[in-house]
Every structure is written in C-alpha cells, then in structure tokens.
Amino acid sequence: MSRALLSGARIVTLTGPGSQASVTEGAVLVEGGRILWVGPSGAAPEADTVRDLEGRLVTPGLIDCHTHLVHGGHRAGEFARRLAGASYADIARAGGGIAATVAATRAASLDDLVATALPRLDRLIGEGVTTVEIKSGYGLDIETELRMLQAARALGQARAVRVRTSFLGAHAVPPEFKADRAAYLHEVCLPALRRAAKAGLADAVDGFCEGIAFSPAEIATVFAEAKALGLPVKLHAEQLSHAGGAALAAREGALSADHLEYATPEDAAQMARAGTVAVLLPGAFYTLREATAPPVAAFRKAGVAMALATDCNPGSSPLTSPLLAMNMGCTLFGLTPGEALAGVTRHAARALGLDDVGQIAPGFRADLAIWDVEAPEELAYRIGFNPLWERFFGGIA
Ligand code: NIG
Ligand code: FE
User: Fold this and answer.
1) Burial group, residue 359, by CB count within 10 angstroms (0-12, 13-18, 19+)
2) Domain that holds residue 344
3) Residues with Cβ within 5 Å of ion ligand 2?
4) 84 and 28 together in one domain
C-alpha cells in the first residue's frame, strides 16, 4: 500500500477535550484511506509521495449532520409570504410548509430526487464536506419514504462522500390522515420504518416533536420501534416551543436533539447525563427570524457537546453552506469560532454515532479539508467566502 505524506501543514486535529481548535505545525501520513501518523514534519516516517502544503490549514473533512437534502420542488413562494408577515406555523396550518414539499416529493421519481439533490450536495462537497446526513420525511407514505432513502443512498454512490440516512416518517401528519393520527403512525410510519430497516436504508430514526407535528408520546412509539430494530434515534426538539422533546431524547439515549431554541437548562442537564449531542441549526433560526436562541451557555455549563449543521431543506433553511452555518452559529448563537469548527467535525461525528471521522488522529479515516487560510477562526469569520483548497475523501483528493 502506498503511503502519502502531507507535510508543512498547520493541523487542527480536534482531538483535544471539548471543543479546542488548537493548531499544530506538522504532517499527516495517509495509507489505505486512513490516517497512519500525525506529527512534526521533521520527524515524519518514510513515504512514497510527499506533498508540501506550504503552511495551509488542515482540518477534518466537514460533517453536515442534519440535512433534508433530498426533496421535490422549492418553497420560494412561502419565503415571500413569511416576509409579508405569515408565520411558519400559519403556513403549515394552511396546508403549505412541509405538506407542500410532500406533494412535490411524491410526484418526483427516484431519478428526479437524485438529480435535484446533486447540485445541493455539490455545494456541500465544495466546502469540504466529506460526510452528510440525509433524512426522509417528505414522503409520508411508505413508497415515497423508501424512495427518498434510496435517493440518499444513490447520492453516496454518485459522489465521493459518506451518506448517513435518517428515517423521518414522523415529520408531519400527511393531509389524508389529519383526522386519524394514530392510523398514520401505525399504518404508514411504523411499517415504512420496518421496511427501511429491513432493506438497510436507515442508519438512524428521527422525528419532529412539536405542536404542529408529533407529541412526545407519539414520538416514543416510533422510538420504541427503532429500539426493537436496533437503530439509534435523534429528534427535532424544542424548535418552535417547549414541547418536551429534549427530555424525551435524553431519556431514550438519543444520539442528538436538534434545533433546541426553546430548550431549558434542565433539558441541558439531562442531555449532558445521556451524552446526547445538541445539534444547532442557525439557518432555520435565521430564516424563520426566530427571536429565542438556543441556551448555548447552559449547554456549555452542563458539558453538552454542540454540533452545527445546515438543516438544508426547502422551507425553514434553504442553506447549502456549512461555512455560513459556522458564521451564523457564532454571530447569532454566540459560539466561539473553535466551538463552531468542533461543531462541524468532532461533535457532528458524535451526533451521527460515528467514531472514525471528525478528528485527525491515527486510525481515523483520511477525510480531510485543506484551507487556504492562516487561522481556524477565518473559517467562521468570513461571510460568503470559500477558502477550500483541496479535499481528501478516504485519502483520495
Ligand atoms: O428541520 N423542523 C422540522 N423540519 C425541518 C423543516 C422542514 C420544512 O419546513 O420543510 C427543519 O427545520
Ligand atoms: Fe430538520
């Protein structure tokens, strides 16, 4: 196997405790798609090829741990309606919102879903993303939920990127089941989940716990099925109100609770005990012009790991830039630039239950982003600027 050395680098390993983003001068040795060695350039072992990075910054490949990348259509019309004063919940209650995307997604073929998601995926990849999570949740019937997950898997074949899927059948109650929510859960959501699991299409199970979506008791039913199928869980929680999702996620040992604008310090304490990651989604906060920010200070104090993601979706967060998510995480939520970087690497890996990405250390996958910047803070500081110089996926540029 050939050994490739990247020398003369400034490396942010993200291996330190918490969210330290300290820089070390040095080299990374890659073999067989994995990192074999990290250390000072002068002490590097023999390699077949050596590349001098001339002081460029090397971070782990970015991980976008919460997206709805696969969907039909767009909702630019709702953007205009919201600007004119309608709220996200108003639009959802009037049959728009998620239901509008459900109609467009049901009408889309597998090929359509892949083709329309590819440009969005390419934007993420163009900013150094090497792992992306993609959810279902705009099908809300068995066939379309499965087709969304198939599209997500196909995207992972079409590009050099690792895709992790989450089954999100409990995203909204579709119009045809408005009068019988229990029937939706038992006749569509749970059977779709079982089929997705059997076909190996779901890596995790997600839900939307909210007044306009599902109650904690309804979500608990879905989580019980996930547990029976051996799948980890995560949850959209406390986004628009305090509905009890964060505490439920912690009780169920969820990988993550996501959004969390209305989470409380008590929720933070429970999440810390459970090791549940807080996934912050500033793109949705910004787009919906929310006024209540997630309790970052409480998460910090309790020792909850904070991840950051784009939440790329056609309604609440039409964002395809993890770098802008980092900037917004700092400016809108008060994260430090170091926390923002840990949020799209080390902590994002944890939110997906992955232990071989998100850090630069021997044994980890050689998923790397090389940036034409001097300091890690620059990644979060600039707005609309992409300094990616090179990206390695499994050691391959
Ligand atoms: O993560 N919160 C619920 N789900 C998505 C929004 C979906 C949509 O509006 O289409 C989110 O923000
Ligand atoms: Fe989401």
Assistant:
1) buried
2) 62-351
3) 311
4) no
